[in-house]
# Entry
Amino acid sequence: MLRAADSAVALTGAGISVPSGIPDFRTPGEGLWEKVDPMEVATIQAFSSDPKRFWDFYRPRFATLGSKEPNPAHDALVELEQRELLSAVITQNIDRLHRKAGTERLIEVHGSIATSSCIGCGATWGLDEVEALFGDQGVATCTECLGAVKPDVVLFGELLPVEAMDDARELSAQADLMLCIGSSLEVHPVAGLPELTLARGGRLAILSKGPTPYDDDADVRMNGDVVDDLGAVLAALG
Ligand code: ZN
# Structure
């Protein structure tokens, strides 16, 4: 299917980063978010009304994610792109591991922890620079205007970036093959992207543990270890 496709895209979710030591928060008992309700803390409302509480949750998360490295599943998608068998990667992940692995055409529809920005003046800092912005209050503050600094990720209660979603929709609507990897395909609006590929007559290959709403529509359904499965795909391509 990859060889035959004119335009294949990958849509990835938390499952592709699990082998990098980033647990899927949907996995019971393992998630980073096990002890707090992210719907309460990782929201734009919490960021605005109680930034200390927001950062108490997010600051250690930053430190944890910052040390993670891409795994062979991320690398497999880089190789497919380099061999011109894959046009782009659309990801729900904020861990910036696709970028770190070397994917060129990457759409991060939920943003990325790679940068944080001042909501006042727009000044931006890299992941390694944010820690220095914390004062005694436990809140990251802009060195220029003293405005609040926010990770450039989409928080609960925020809309997805328009430009990234437009790109994602266009790629999905043009693709004649979509590889859905490590995503339960349940979080909208991203969950609607495979529908766009199907609607234009494209095919789906789903590599993910656990059921998805598109299982009956998929030409290929793999539910093993994502590293093993993508390794098998590369091996089959030769
Ligand atoms: Zn500022």
The beta strands are 8-12, 88-91, 106-108, 111-118, 124-126, 149-153, 177-181, 203-207, 220-222. Helices lie at 38-41, 44-49, 51-66, 72-82, 97-101, 162-174, 193-199, 226-237. Residues 51-66 form the longest helix (16 residues).
